[in-house]
Amino acid sequence: MKIRLIDIEDTRNPVVNQILGELDRKKNEAASTGNEELANDCWRELEALKVNIKYIEAFEKIKSKRYRDAWIDLERCEIDVNSIKINSDSGFFIASRCHFIEKQVPKWQSLYPYCLFISPGFKVGYYTCRICNHRIRPRSRCSHIKGKIYNGELCVHEAHDVEMLEISLVRNPVQKYSVAHNDETLDFSLINYLSDFLDNAFENWEAHWTRMSFPMERFSRVDPGSDCPCKSGKKFEECCINEKEISIPHVDFEFFKKIPDEKTRVRFPY
Ligand SMILES: [Zn+2]
Ligand SMILES: [Zn+2]
């Protein structure tokens, strides 16, 4: 069955829920009768549909300026789309829009002002395979590969006897859920600016990170004790304050539709 799935209203269509339920039922039935190929096909369809919905929800949250909530959804999309990629061919991956989502998520993430994350450190007693319950030891592994699907179920290694060791602040976490910032103090203008131009989650866009130089006069309102506009991490007075011009990070957005000219001029953030 073909359904329209572009806007948040589409995701609330009762037919979408029906399809999700039907796929899940078919998957379980195929798994219980040992039809692994069908069970895996159902898993793929189900996960691809869910990730499409999640991506539309993330876009909706960005549009309504709920940036932190959208961030969580984008991270979920990143993880799930990766699972689908490992378990599907490129034809399915592209046709189900997973390829598009995989390509767009890191671009959205790059526009966020987040750079610090909380990363918990654990000591794990032992792991078991979710597929066969085998207790995994260095010399005793089962035949299942982590991240692959078997009979419609994703193989993950479940941790047991977990002890929390420490919490650290990191720049590149394994998962990006735990943001160590207070959103109120951050600047979301890039993502806000971009989302104003987009009508739906599946419109294509590109972000090109460049630098642009501006004469020093333009920075007369920058406090010498604040961060340098060049983003070196140093204070303005210890960095570019005596230069003739300053080169600042700049993003060029590329759209694949006509944008009114008055909206395309360069926005100067100082
Ligand atoms: Zn196993
Ligand atoms: Zn500087």
Could you give a short description of this structure?
By secondary structure, the protein is α+β, with helices and mostly antiparallel strands.
Mean pLDDT over the residues: 94
Bound molecules: zinc ion
Order of helices and strands: HHHHHHEEEEEHEE
Overall form = globular
How many structural domains are formed by the residues?
Answer: 3
What distance separates the N and C termini? 52 Å
Helical segment count:
7
Rg over alpha carbons = 23 Å
Spatial order of the strands in the main sheet?
A: 2-1-5
Our estimate of the beta-strand percent is 15-25%
Report helical residue fraction: 25-40%
Features:
single chain; 270 residues; alpha+beta; three-stranded antiparallel β-sheet; two-stranded antiparallel sheet; 7 strands; globular; binds zinc ion
Question: What does this entry look like structurally?
Answer:
By secondary structure, the chain is an alpha+beta fold. It has 3 domains: 8-111, no CATH class; 117-170, no CATH class; 204-263, no CATH class. It has 7 helices and 7 strands; from the N terminus they run ααααααβββββαββ. Strands 2-1-5 form a 3-stranded antiparallel β-sheet, with no helix packed on it. Strands 3-4 form a two-stranded antiparallel sheet. Helix 4 (67-86) packs antiparallel against helix 6. It is globular. Residues 228, 230, 232, 239-240 line the site of one zinc ion. One zinc ion is lined by residues 129, 131-132, 134, 142, 144.
Describe how the helices and strands are arranged.
Blueprint: H1 8-11, H2 14-32, H3 36-63, H4 67-86, H5 90-95, H6 98-111, E1 117-129, E2 135-136, E3 149-150, E4 153-154, E5 157-170, H7 189-197, E6 205-215, E7 245-255
Antiparallel strand pairs: 1-2, 1-5, 3-4, 6-7
Helix pairs in contact: 2-3, 3-4, 4-6
Residues 129, 131-132, 134, 142, 144 line the site of one zinc ion.
